[in-house]
Specification:
Blueprint (H helix, E strand, L loop, with lengths): L2 E5 L5 H13 L2 E4 L19 H7 L21 E9 L2 E2 L1 H8 L7 E8 L7 H8 L4 E2 L3 E4 L4 H11 L1
Parallel strand pairs: 1-2, 1-3, 3-5, 5-6, 5-7
Antiparallel strand pairs: 3-4
Length: 159
């Protein structure tokens, strides 16, 4: 079974978790990168004028252009692990943009999120609803500073 770990990381927390998952599963990695990356000021959810706050308030702004959305050898992957930070109880918008552009038919998808305080919410269900095909599994929430042991424990459930 060939596995791909796909992730978007705004501040590096999800990246750390995704890389550890990929190492444990001996998986390939694909990073979701917005064409216009988010700056620290863009991510200031306490500022009503920050980019992410404006996008949260107006869902029409959440269709984020990506640098690349075509994954090399996409048909070769049987399992896709998708990681993202939680923004207002849902997946960070670049992940939705990625998911909407893929055909997941014939793949099993394992979503995970990272967060300091928020739960998974219905982010995994919303991603499944945005997706074309695939067998979507229940998502998992990691604390943003998850330990290698916590990550390994979850990965062991995927084997």
């Amino acid at each position: 079974m060939k596995t791909l770990v796909v992730y978007y990381s705004a501040e590096g927390h999800t990246k750390k978790i995704a890389e550890e998952i990929a190492k444990e599963l001996e998986a390939d990695v694909f990073e979701i990168v917005p064409a216009e990356p988010y700056t620290k000021d863009d991510l200031n959810w306490m500022d009503d004028n920050s980019r992410c706050t404006r996008e949260h308030a107006d869902p029409s702004l959440r269709d984020i252009e990506l640098k690349a959305s075509k994954v090399p050898n996409w048909p070769d992957y049987d399992r896709v692990v998708i990681g993202y930070p939680i923004w207002w109880g849902i997946a960070a918008w670049p992940v939705n943009s990625f998911v909407k552009q893929q055909d997941f038919t014939g793949k099993t998808i394992f979503p995970f999120c990272s967060s300091h305080s928020s739960g998974l919410g219905e982010s995994d269900i919303e991603l499944k609803n945005d997706a074309s095909g695939g067998e979507w599994q229940e998502g998992y929430r990691f604390f943003q500073d998850a330990s290698a042991q916590a990550i390994k424990s979850w990965v062991d459930t995927l084997r």
